[in-house]
């Protein structure tokens, strides 16, 4: 006999897992969520929210510095950390209260699948709650990966958790990895007063974006004083007193007060009992467009699945999952407004913003990825600073927009915006791509003057409409 019998049990109470449980419960299913750490997950306390809280003040300072007649003064790091704590204080009582108010059962402890439709929750006091559920959803997120660097396990390196929750600015910071976490935290800490060095194995930063976007980001980081080392790797690290000493494969040596490991993440599926149902632990769960992994009872969403590793995409998957569970509980066909387009959206219309300076906001294909997908495309770009809105927004505005057009269908399949304050421009491109709006129709979407959105008109003119 199970201690708890519910329609849906979700392992992982981050924003993705919470959304599954809430969406299913709002439509009549009983739901429980299991969480071994903080309710609200990685995004709320150690990733999206605190990192943006650290970046916004230094971003605003840089923006003011570009505007004659305005003096922002120096950044007060202590006040930046204090404001960060208002958004990401690791106290999850508010999140737990929300679950309770929503009628969702919270089980604090480590959840493991013990068989089909069965989960055991091991609590901190040593007791266990056995849960029987019609549907089990894995929403356990991801954990940092450590590259094979000699000594890396012995130097108390920072991960995204330590760097976003730090209470001091180290005199110097070594960053291993030039992906999103690496470049965002390099931006924040260099401008808060640290001396930052980024070591990137690849030949450019954030390799998934358009090459020109990566080039301008690197130029901006270096202008701030960040030492960017491309095409090189750390081979060994050790502590020498208060410093971390890193040896590189080119024979040089770096020293820093702290080392941030930002070299990627892996699904948090290693200790879930997946082997009890014939699945391999530690791997991403292969979920289909309905988020189904196995039979009609096991589902996966967010970083634990094979989908895009972004909070907003995980929440999109969560909405699909909740609707699928409700449909199956009623014996109805699975589909509807989410499931029928999930695969297309995941493959061709994933938006992302990198909150560096310049910001990089992109959705869909780059020119290279579109060509690799076999599409016939033409990419056109335009300098945002050459629009009235861009030139008014900041003196010497440095940024550009690119659209990638499928020339067979005359629709946009990718867009990238680079520059100060471009983050919110990406959603217009997302709508155009998801809606497959023909360029001939998009021509009639008139941008307001004088705003940076005028770049849309200039892109269409450049393309030749």
UniProtKB/TrEMBL annotation:
GO MF, one example = dihydrolipoyl dehydrogenase (NADH) activity
Q: Cross-referenced SUPFAM superfamilies, in alphabetical order?
A: FAD/NAD(P)-binding domain (SSF51905), FAD/NAD-linked reductases, dimerisation (C-terminal) domain (SSF55424)
Q: Is this entry keyworded Cytoplasm?
A: no
| Binding residues annotated for FAD, in chain numbering | 52, 111, 140-142, 303
Give the required cofactors.
FAD
Give an example GO biological process: 2-oxoglutarate metabolic process
Enzyme type, top EC level: oxidoreductase
> Mind listing the UniProt keywords for this protein, alphabetically?
FAD, Flavoprotein, NAD, Nucleotide-binding, Oxidoreductase
Highest taxon, organism lineage: Bacteria
Q: Where is the FAD/NAD(P)-binding domain?
A: 7-317
**Which cysteine pairs are joined by S-S bonds?**
43-48
- Residues that coordinate or bind NAD(+): 177-184, 264
**Entry's EC annotation:** 1.8.1.4
Q: Which residues form the Pyridine nucleotide-disulphide oxidoreductase dimerisation domain?
A: 350-456
Q: What is the cofactor note?
A: Binds 1 FAD per subunit.
Q: Which PANTHER family match?
A: DIHYDROLIPOYL DEHYDROGENASE, MITOCHONDRIAL, DISULFIDE OXIDOREDUCTASE
Spell out the family assignment given in the record's similarity comment: Belongs to the class-I pyridine nucleotide-disulfide oxidoreductase family.
Specify the protein name: Dihydrolipoamide dehydrogenase
Task: Give the organism, scientific name.
Answer: Actinomycetospora corticicola
